[in-house]
Hints:
By secondary structure, the chain is an alpha/beta fold. It has helices spanning 4-10, 23-31, 60-63, 91-105, 110-114, 119-125, 145-166, 182-192, 209-218, 258-264, 310-317, 336-340, 368-375, 391-399, 424-433, 458-471; strands at residues 38-42, 47-51, 133-136, 172-176, 198-202, 224-227, 240-244, 254-256, 270-274, 278-280, 297-299, 325-327, 349-351, 381-383, 414-416, 439-441, 455-457. Helices cover 32% and strands 14% of the residues.
Amino acid sequence: MAPPAARRARRRPRGALAAGARAEDWWWERLAPSGSGCHLLQADSMLLVLPGPGPARVHKRAAAAKPEAGSGSQPELRPGPDPGWGDRIPLEVLVQIFGLVVAADGPMPFLGRAARVCRRWHEAASQPVLWHTVTLSPPLGGRPAKSGAKAEKKLLASLEWLMPNRFSQLQRMTLIHWKSQVHPVLKLVSESCPRLTFLKLSDCHGVTADTLVMVAQACPQLHSLDLQHSTGSCCPQLQVLEVGTGLSPNTTPLQLPVEALQKGCPQLQVLRLLNLMWLPKPSGRGAPGPGFPSLEELCLASSTSNFVSNEVLGRLLHGSPSLRLLDLRGCARVTPAGLCNLPCQELEQLHLGLYGMSDRLTLAKEGSPLLTQKWHRTLWELDLSGQGFSEKDLEQALAAFSGAPGGSHPALRSLNLRGTQVTVSTVSSVISSCPGLVYLNLESCRRLPRGLKRVYRGQEGVQWCLEQLLTSVPSPS
């Protein structure tokens, strides 16, 4: 029987080490063979293959060997593994790598953790180019109130250092789920972020008009402000103001200082108060406000009844001749007569749908021809869903699109008549007069035949609807 040493030799796999060779030498030669123009660098937990000739390689045992007693010569010093391998990466390359991570996940908490690796990483993580956009959310936003407040205070302590040292070049900032420390955070923003252009507060409580004025005065470049549960600011450069409550409307009416908002935001172009139950503050006996001379979009859409009336709409838009989009979905108190008095002459989109409210309307409305007679040349989207206009009233209103001057075609491309009293002849006439119509909603129209009460998209679908209407028997169902 063969001795144990012979059996071990026979079991050695192909490519195994020769007698007297070290495992480290074998890996070194396999990863960076001689003559390849590369060298191997050993770190604490990895091996790096780098181009170019490297330093002489020694083993840890050889480097730690003591000189023989009585020898007068000093031991030969050979370089060991380089502990500062991170310094070999150029700063510009490291910043680009960090930028890819920041673009995907944001700067926090990645840059804070990367800055603790080494000096080079700290220098790269401190570059202002990586701190242009920041989203801050307390880590315990969904926990009980006490835990959430404690987490906000802890994060606020970190922000007291981050704001002046990292956020000096900040341009876009979003706060999510802050409940108790919004004012201190925005105070830090006003003190440290003069270049801020975009601020979004999502599900943040305790935001007051005074707080927003503080931020607006300290950030003159602020152009977009997206808020929740709060309005009111003094932003001479502000162009977009949006206040919304999501899908659940608020139950406590919010007072909106219309005239003060007009004075504080003279360059406002977009105003959205989404699903919000708000009350305009009384205007008093003084002169009306300056209006919004640059306003192009006003959206007051709501899923429930609100307090928007002709008088309120007049206070908002009496100085807005450039309005292009007006969204009044859910505003049941606004009448066609009140809309006709608005100064805007080139309205392109008008949304008057009353979704979910048509069953509560008992009296037929009149006056829809006032809308189309004023804007039939410029309107390319009209929404009358759920409005209680009579058959004759709608017929006169939609007939305005067939009398285009000079033989030109109307600009109408989208028409929503869902739940109205529109008839076959009226729909056929408007389709024939508007060849550019690509969207037509006829759902729940009781005066139309069965099978045609649906949505039509594209010119082919709309033309097919016309053919069916012309061949159908006008019997209501």
